[in-house]
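A quick aside before the break. I want you to see a complete sequence-to-structure record at least once, exactly as it would be stored in a machine-readable document. Don't worry about memorizing anything.
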Amino acid sequence: MHLFCTCMLYSLLMVSHLVSATVSNSFKDCSHFFYMQTPPTGIRGASLKRICQKFADKLRYATLYDSRRHLPLYSAYVFKKSDGKRRVDTPWMYEPQLVSDDESGNMRVLPLDQDTPPLIEDSQVVLEDYIDAVEYRRGPLNADQHQAEPDDKSSTYTLTNVVPLITDFLDTSWNPYLDVIRRRLNNFCHGKSFIVTGVTTSGAAIQRNNQDRLTIPKHLWLAYCCPWFDRNSPYEVRFMFPSYGGYALNEKTGYSVMEVPLKTLESFLRSQADIDSDMIIFYKSCMSENTFKKMKRSDLTSVKLQPK
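That is the input. The structure line, written in tokens, reads:
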């Protein structure tokens, strides 16, 4: 049986697919998904992997993955104007480089017609882990409704991008919040926005075969950075630029998303487990383009005024 599973895994890994990713100790190859090419700092984990998620030969987003707890701690992506529609025909995929360091990085569709090979189960969450998680559903950190192109939407359907969320919370709180953010950025953000969506941990887990398989997030949080925005936007949203955030408790119905300024979100996250006291989401708290240009002009002026 072990030989059969090993051979089956080898066969799966040899099949070529359109989806691929790279796993390393840095985000060097996908730093453009972060504002000023700077990832968040101060987030800890036992065995962190940095995944540059790639689909159809194009990098799509970045994920910080805790391989010991089988949990993505955050996904970072670029938001462009989105129609909010979701894909219904994309199969779930897994990350082979978490199985073996020797793999090339091509992500694979999870096998549906036989048991998942044990080498995959040892390294990451698989679909079988959700069978007995009756109150939970797979919740993506990089949500397909925040993506504009079909391939960008499809690339979000990997289990290294999802966490177990209470179904009622996902339907009544988080998904409506994602749509609020989508509409806000569509209407008032000029150009691209940078979004980071992450979790805090509680220590709780869902078991399968008497083993902890699904780490349950305590909170879900999101922050966006829109450097170029409409300065004539209505008063009720003007203060939410260039950056804002939100967080919510991953519990049953009744826990809505609390929208807060970026610094307030960072202060809240610093009080949570496995997050340092100097945790930062966006470089220099996300500056508007006008502020950035003024700083550059100021720097150039100071250089010119220096005595020769």
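Two observations worth writing down. The first strand starts at residue 19 and ends at 24. Helices lie at 2-14, 118-121, 150-154, 167-188, 235-238, 262-270, 289-305. We'll return to this after the break.
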